[in-house]
Amino acid sequence: MPSALDRFAPATRTWFAESFDGPTPAQEGAWRGVEGDEHVLVVAPTGSGKTLAAFLSAIDRLMHAEVPADEPVPGTRVLYISPLKALAVDVERNLRSPLVGITQAAARRGDSFRDVTVGVRSGDTSQRDRRSLLSRPPDILITTPESLFLMLTSAARDTLRTVDTVIIDEIHAVAGTKRGAHLAVSLERLDALLEAPARRIGLSATVRPHDEVARFLAGSARVSVVAPTATTRLALEVEVPVDDMTKIPAPPRDEGSGARSLAPGEDDQPRGSIWPHVEEAIMHRVLAHRSTIIFVNSRGVSERLTARLNEAYADHLGLTDPDAPPAGRTPAQIMGGSAAARPAAGDDAETVLARAHHGSVSKDQRALIEDDLKSGRLRCVVATSSLELGIDMGAVDLVIQVSSPPSVASGLQRVGRAGHQVGEISQGVTYPTSRPDLLGAAVTTSRMQAGLIERLDIPANPLDILAQHTVAATALESLDVEEWFDTVRRSAPFATLPRSAYDATLDLLSGRYPSDEFAELRPRIVWDRDAGTIEGRPGAQRLAVTSGGTIPDRGMFGVFLAAGAEESGPRKVGELDEEMVYESRINDVFALGATSWRIQEITHDRVNVTPAFGQPARLPFWKGDAIGRPYELGEAIGAFVREASALAPEALAERTAGLGLDRRAADNLGAYLRDQKEATGQVPSDRTLLVERFRDELGDWRVVLHSPFGRRVHAPWALAVGARIVERYGMDGSVVASDDGIVARIPDTETEPPGAELFVFDTDELDTIVTAEVGSSALFASRFRECASRALLLPRRNPGSRAPLWQQRQRSAQLLDVARKYPSFPILLETARECLQDVYDLPALTALSQRLASREVQIAEVTTERASPFAQNLLFGYVAAFLYEGDTPLAERRASALTLDPTLLAELLGRAELRELLDPEVLEHIELELQRLTDDRQVKDVEGVADLLRLLGPLSSDEVRARVQPDLAGEAAGWLTELQGARRAIEVAVAGDIRWAVVEDAGRLRDALGVVVPMGVPDAYLEVVADPLLDLVSRHARTHGPFTSADVASRFGIGVAVADQVLRRLSRDGRLTEGEFRPQATGSEWVDPGVLRRLRSRSLAAARQQVEPVDPLTFARFLPSWQGVGGTVRGPEGVLATIDQLAGVALPASAWESLVLPARVRDYSPAMLDELTSAGEVVWSGAGSLPGNDGWVQLHPADFVLRAAGAQAVDPLDPDSLHATIATALDGGGAFLFRQLIDVLTAQGPGTVDHADVATTLWDLVWSGRISNDTFAPVRTLVGRGGAHRTQRPAPRARLHGRRVRSPRTALQGPPTVSGRWFSLAESADDATSLQLARTESLVGRYGVVTRGSVMAEQTPGGFAAIYRVLRELEQTGSVLRGYYIETLGAAQFAAPATVDRMRAFVLDDERPTDAAAVTLAATDPANPYGAALPWPDRVVDDGGTRHRPARKAGSLVVMHDGHLVLYLERGGKKALVFDDDPARLAAAARSLVTLVRARRMSRLTIETADGRPVGSSPLGDALLEAGFEQTIKGVRLDA
User: Fold this and answer.
1) What single string gives the DSSP state of each residue in 722-758?
2) Where are any strands of DSSP class E within 378-484?
3) How many helices (H) and strands (E) are present in the chain, helices listed first?
4) How far is the first Cα of the chain from the last one, in angstroms, to the nearest whole number?
5) For every residue of 562-583, which 3-state class applies, written as one string?
6) Deepest in the core among 506, 1148, 1239, 1534, taking most CB within 10 A?
7) Backbone angles phi, psi at 199, to 5 degrees
8) Contact status, residue 1078 vs residue 918, Cβ threshold 8 Å
9) Where is the Helicase ATP-binding domain (predicted)?
10) What is the pLDDT of residues 1154-1170, one digit of tens each?
11) What are 1196's strand-pairing partners?
């Protein structure tokens, strides 16, 4: 096959052969593609020679084309467009090599050639050079998208009329942005100048999908895509410099200010910061290589890491004096700005290891830094994304990434800076700074190696770009409206531009909106609608040239010490992003580094502050740093977590090693996933999201949604969640989104915080909620300013300078106030589109919501004692990110809610307005109700007819008759005549029909519809009404279901346009909602919001009725699992979680540690409960005594103490009794050891105090619920072997006493039954309402489905009637759903939203016994549904006159299998009732009893009778003997 080089001239081939070994696959493919007539897209990794591939064919053609000697070059032939000015300069410099080389080769050969000229035009080009380019156009012009726009809008466009080739470099960097959309239209404008469209050559690094970038390059034209398969030339590592990232050793050297500042928010702790270890490792890496680029994700880290590396390098060289005292400056001055990262004047450059490079560094400084790195004078640059694109950085042989890159594409761009030359291997190392960061780095590195970059999406129909180009294109000549529409639509971003949006934009530019309210709304173009032309008005060209472009004007505010402060020296503290300053107020406190600063003054360009040491502060936020994780990368992280968490440690280590993780990284990653799984029971993934609830250090609730899908999905979701919290709870939830989930803060309240239901939305309404919420957000206001600027609505007053930010904000706010009056205002729509599709990823959120609805993705929930490992990362991000919505007062946010035109917005977004939500039968019935056509609403007398006319408006005689009770219909005409005679009703002609109306409507009908009013109407009813037609239409809406504009026009005899105008006015006032509502209808409809609420609520009720209830056995299977029976949790955390679910349940003291807690906590030991009580996290209380040293005991989380209804209150206490004396002593506060209490009692009266009496009295007060103890040891000792549930386990000494050493003087003197500290007990809430709400929410959490039986079994105060009232209110908030979930248990059942689907998973189609283990529970255990939610099965045994029936009594046991009640054992176990004779179930029950005894949860179990007969001769006896029981004279027995 001939080489692609054969097409070039001999001189070109000679130079190439002398310079290179041969063409790369990308070059071969590009040159072959250029031979055809199609546009060409070259997709190849960095270092594949793409730029030379594009230029060489153009250079060869220009140098060797036959041009007559006397014919001057008419203009530019090749246009090279670069997204970066620095890249443009770099390319111009690199072109010298082929130009000079080919020229010399041609000269040596004696070939004829012509000189090829090259020019550069960018924002840095001087006016003199620009004039030169205009008078002598170069053959090759290197420019930027913005400069191309300016040339097309000026006389310079004539130099472009000869262009035949356009090269667009780094096309992937602009294709997915508005800057790319701007460029795409510029290219179409360029083609319109040419005789034939120019050949476009796009150069792109690895990008996906190729077709989308090809579409951006050439619109609908054919494109040849050259994407040679490239072998991976990446050497990637992920390195962690410490063994355990949660227990970081202190560094061998002092942690300087730089190290601490890099870990904001951390106090000086015994463990060290990871930053010194990372810095040390980075420094050694840098010193081992020639040239290194370090990429970080924020400017602050770039500056501080640079400073720290230079300090460490100076230490390494031994150039620092360790005894030198620090300069007397404030921390802010030490870290104040980029100067810290640069050597001061006079510093030895050889002591500088690194320099910082980011957007805040001046252009000249960046150029010097780049040149120093290329020349080898600088070993290292610490950069943000400013160095990602394809600038040739010379011999860079290592790229280090500190923290995971924001995306796979970004990571590949960064690593591609190393080994930039053809054939070299790109070496990259990532240093994660936290365990969550390590997880992201592992997945990103994996996808980088596989080339799985994120999908690129082209912005659709950005109307601000359309407006700007329209003004620019018409500035020099008149355009045909249709031709301009076709030109714009040829570009990929506008390929689907609706004509309505196009016309709306022309309306905006031609002066449709009032310029008297905002001057810049004055017309910019003249639209001759008759001629079909548009033409720029005077000043249009100057406006486009001075205010055009797409890069938003986002500035920084300097932060300075306020005047009068004592500190000398530089006063600059640092910088804040304008968005943060925009949301800040005087006296707000924020943190920079380790210091808090209080804002004293905000001027137009600076923030003056004073120190606020130790004050709680929020962290600064840089808008440019907040790059959201792409949805695809989030999905990949979720999949990795799901797969990795299921692997054994060895398998996980093997897999991660293949991803480039070193041993420490692999170990930390595995530990991170295991720790999360232990904390929450499962890990969030791409298929399971997790809602975690816990209290923070202030006692407030944090509700965390763990989700991997990225901030662009979570941010709009958080808006909807915030709106739901406000709607349901009347409070601001301070909801903040991050890449890893959503955090909501619920202020401390006695009510149960929301769970998974807070995050689950109806898919069909989610986009509506988000659209409404985003309109009132600070983000919307900020983006509106940018969009309005791009649309030339906020032009620069002085083209030579930037308008102050405060002035821009002020003018934008004024424009926004005007625009709000016009829902179809194009820039409002564009701002909404940008927020929802470019900033947020609403389509991805909608898709995720649909997956949640189909249960392809599920949501689990868990309540934890403290933040899980995943949640800790979210909380840190919460502190850093929370500054937007939550700072705005709620009332102002509501007042600024923006109404968008839903129809036009839906057209732009390409999505349906509303889906088919409403039940047809519900819709029909509500319409009959509204029209008083149902039996219960029909009228029966003359007053009823009067009410009909007043409520429904004018009605015909037939319409009135239809609304009268059938047996009285004949009276309708007489009643109407009676009302007419009494002058209470009039007969009028409306829309050609004779109708009856109340006399009060006379003036309204006359003024709105021109109705002729009969004679004799009182003047009072003929007065002028302010807006009569709006009143009539509003009443029509309140009394009808969804209707169209045509329906209103027909009803009132008005034009459809007039009706539509009135309807839209009502919509803007919030009195109507527009959408698609009827299930089978099409087109836009209108409905009253109140009617819509009724339609939705009743439709949901109808859907609820369609749910098939489960059978009682399914609930019996579900309930033990719901309560964690089976030991699914471990450790003290598991004990606390169990107690949280069982809070307030009174159970026999002897059952708690023998049956209840061991059944739920796999590794339960009494020490765990003692640890929690001693630490004050759990409180126990008495609720009545039982025979045999036993009693009813409740366990509570310390902040959730609920006394039981059965507590035996000793009230009133005899003031002279010992009970009153002890209660008074304890009520005074504090906790008393028994000896201390004896001393207090002795001091209060004469005589000695009997210790035994005091002990007895203490227990009387315990059982009455008045007092408690800080350890469970006294209960354990009291019960001993005499409780209802006997156990062989000896009572251990409480851990409280095992930890502390007391002197003999203070040692506890008294019996073990009174050990520990005694204190008075009070409930967490005092008012009855709060207590009932707490009890109700506890019931919902305990049972999943709350039924009357469950409530009555717990003897809840007020019974089910009181709980029902609270459940009904919770239903209104959406916390619970009412339904018929379980057969035979009544209709009044309430379930948490996440419960029902889980319960249905326990449905068994086959009732035959399964292999599942049986469950033995105390009969009083709430996990036993029998005798509570479910009735006991029929079984009464008459044993010699004694009737035995099951009951929830202390000491009794139940054994269940597959939900079936198999056995009931009375106290002591001697008598058994058998409820299921199935041999398999009996065998399973017997095995469960054996397991119970052998686990020493019972000391001995002897069963003598079964159903009143000797057990030995029964099937149960056989099963017990088979399982391990022994035969005795009386029956069967098993000892522990």
Assistant:
1) HHHHHHHHSS----EEETTEEEEEE-S-SSPPP-GGG
2) 380-383, 398-402, 426-431, 479-480
3) 59, 50
4) 87
5) CCCCCCCCCCEEEEEEHHHHHC
6) 1148
7) -70, 130
8) yes
9) 31-225
10) 999 999 999 899 999 99
11) 1179
